[in-house]
Amino acid sequence: MDEPKAGELMETLASLCKRRGFVFQSSEIYGGLNGFWDYGPLGAELKRNIKDCWWRWMTRLREDVVGLDASIIMHPRVWEASGHTTTFSDLMVDCLLTQKRFRADQIEAQSGTAYFYTGATEAAAGKECKDPFSVLIATGKHPGYAREAARHFYKQRGLREPVLQGERSEPVQNTRGYNPENGSLLTEPRAFNLMLKTTVGPVESADNVSYLRPETAQAIFVQFKNVLEVSRQKVPFGICQIGKAFRNEINPRNFTFRSREFEQMELEFFIRPDEAVEAICGRVARPAGPGHPGEPQPDWGWQLWHQYWVEERLRFYESIGLPRASLVEYWQKPEELAHYARATVDVLYRFPFGKRGPDGQLIGEELEGIAARGDFDLSQHQRFAARSMAVFDEELKAAWPKLEPARQAALAERFFQGRLGYLLRMGEAPGAAEKQARQDAEALAKGYYIPHVIEPSAGVDRLALALICEAYAQDQAPDEKGKLETRVVMRFHPRIAPIKAAVFPLLKNKPALVQKAREVRDLLRPHLSVFYDEAGAIGRRYRRQDEAGTPFGITIDFDTLGERGLELKDTVTLRDRDTMKQDRVRIADLVPMLSARVR
Length: 599
Ligand code: GAP
Fold this sequence. Notes:
The protein is an alpha+beta fold. Helices cover about 35% and strands about 25% of the residues. The chain has 17 helices and 29 strands.
């Protein structure tokens, strides 16, 4: 699919999302607000199902993960400790002509001829502007285009009839310094902090500034000790959370993909440092090859835990209808890694709007990042809050004295070097850092350490968009008269489909059919999300549900009433959305049968 077709597909999907009530523009009647979206009836169900599936998979079905639901606004020191106040920024550039703002890394390299001006004058008014300006135009294009843009620039600076000064031109290659939309010079890149500010309390002052959280993860670190205490968990264990996050994105785009308000589903899975694993188990198991490493084992080091969570997450995506072929596992290169990360795998989905590789294949855009973050986050909160984030590990305490002295020394030294490196990177004075790291290594020998963490962090809205893209299909289906027509069908996996089953009486003017259909609806309702529809021809009702992605259609007809023989009494037709095949099913079997298929 080439770019315009991808653009058309996204437009089709955005219009379907609006028409069927998946996604609306926020504040639409006031012209909308860029980067904010509302989910309509079907979208709200879809999102809820995504979150329920994630929650079930990540905590309910596991012994070793518990949940948290923390507040959106937290103490501002949290964001100093996490580094967001100082480093959570994108480089932005502004167009000097239109003031439109771009993320610097989203400007494509361009080549052409650049026209430079040293300023402009307006002799009649005795005015002069000495601001330099430049315009990039395609080589061979008439310089009049550049001059027109430059005159516009100087008019904005108060000259009514600007006469351009000092024009010169030169060919330029692969520059990112010009607005790709109009050729105008861009400002130099400068950092723009993405956190949305607010003030807390009745007085608006600098002392009361706080932030809407840019990620849910930090609350998990901040509450780590409380959760550990009450949950009776032991490392390795995890804390997960689903909730809103806010980022003042410079350039929200691609429908809901990059929004300013979105939801995250994050897990912080706390593990022993490798030195503790080695002391307890005598060895640290590392990945033997690609694929799922199986059930967690006590001798796993951070690499195996990381691989485990990457594979678990891929399995999760498959379980809700994103096949492996639609996903890409991208290992960040060393130069792309955050300074604290040992490894990060991005799970990419091949969104239609994404970039293509040299082979024409979609490269994919990020759905989730799975990062091995070491002990950075808990260490930061320990330093900033002056509260210990260390845990006591009974097994480590028992194992340490049994180690050979040489092994003890080697492990302590490795641990010391790790802690020292972190403290120095964070700007601690060398003497103080060494003292602290030495204490940390001595504490390890007594069974104490700050856990390391593996963080799978996913976006609900991006996943909803990926599922919508993946579900969208067109095929041929017979109309009322058996003639083939194009049908739009959303092939959602039953687990995440907004409506699981639609119930239709064959005819709405036959009270016995309507009554029976309502009985079936009421029978199913406590177990599944059900939609009841009696309006219009049955074919049209099927089409409406196909477009909503409802996997099962249940029709109550005269056979159900037993009018054509007792053997079909109390049976219904069950239509499969994808194959359009219809089976005769006993009403009494519907609940167990459908419940099993949507689980
Ligand atoms: N705690 C780590 C963290 O927040 P991230 O890669 O910045 O990592 C994690 O965000 C996930 O949150 C992303 O993979 C994406 O799914 C989602 N996300 C991030 N920014 C987003 C945005 N502006 N709009 C929608 N989803 C976003």
